[in-house]
Amino acid sequence: MRETAEIERLAEAELDGVPGYVWDGFSLPVPVEHIADSHFGLWIRDEDDLGRAPGAPDVGPGQSLSGLLLPDRAEIWVNASEARDWPPRRRFTIGHELGHWCLHREAGSGVFCRAATVEVEPDPPPISASRPQRSPAESEANAFGAALLMPARLLRHHYADTGRDFGRLCEIFGASGAAMGRRLHAVV
User: Fold this and answer.
1) What does DSSP say about strands 112-117 and 75-79: parallel, antiparallel, or unpaired?
2) CA nearest to 156, candidates 3, 8, 7
3) pLDDT at 132
4) Least-confidence region, from 75-79, 128-132, 143-147
5) What is the mean pLDDT of residues 9-24?
6) pLDDT averaged over the chain?
7) Does residue 76 sit in helix, strand or coil?
8) Residues 60-95, buried b or exposed e (16+ Cβ, 10 A)?
9) In 3D, which of 44, 37, 10 has the Cα closest to residue 21?
10) In what order do the strands lie in the sheet with 112-117?
11) Is 18 strand, coil or helix?
12) What are phi and psi of 44, to 5 degrees?
């Protein structure tokens, strides 16, 4: 498993390589969909049934997929119904799948997924809640997605500039409270 600092550097390097006509390096929220499309050449597909994707894994009862990366097709499939109900989740799913694109696509697996339970978990989940263990690749993709959507230098700046206003930070970065809480804990 890669160190968090290495993942941060990789995400920063990818953002530094984004052409200025796609993102100027300062405007927020980070235009993750435009970056996926114009910088990485990936097509974003919003689909209600991700099980239709070529090679999609079977999920158990009460489970759903938030997103899939199909590297051979250069496509990211996003759960459209989840995205309609929870737009920040869509942004994070795209960032997460970009993490798989940048970190794992050479590993030989044809499909990378971001699984979620159908039930919306509390934001943030209770400390006593038990969560299934994530694979190293999933944890790395989450860290990459967070670093891409909430760049450390910009997060620190806006954290100070807003007087630590958590709700305002979520709004500025287009992030859920859960993602912002974890990112603040990691960066500030």
Assistant:
1) unpaired
2) 8
3) 56
4) 128-132
5) 98
6) 89
7) strand
8) eeeebbbbbbbbebebbbbbeebbeebebbbbbbbb
9) 37
10) 43-47, 75-79, 63-70, 112-117
11) coil
12) -95, 125
Measured distance CA(101)–CA(121) in Å, rounded: 27
In sequence order, what are the beta bridge partners of 79? Answer: 47
**What does the DSSP 8-state code read for residue 48?**
S
Angle formed at CA 21 by CA 20 and CA 24, multiple of 5 degrees: 40
> In the predicted model, what is the mean pLDDT of residues 133-146?
91
Residues 6+ positions from 40 with CB-CB distance below 8 Å: 98, 101
Cα 41 off chain centre by: 17
β-strand pairing of 43-47 with 75-79: parallel
Distance CA 62, CA 50 (A): 15
| Angle 176-56-85 from CA coordinates, rounded to 5° | 30
Residue 33 has pLDDT above 90, yes or no: yes
Phi-psi label, residue 105: left if phi above 0, alpha if psi -120 to 50, beta otherwise = alpha
**What's CA 105's distance to the chain center, in Å?**
16
Residues 63-79 have pLDDT tens digits of 889 999 999 999 999 99
Q: Cβ(110)–Cβ(61) under 8 Å?
A: no
Spatial separation of the C-alpha atoms in residues 76 and 70, rounded to whole Å: 6
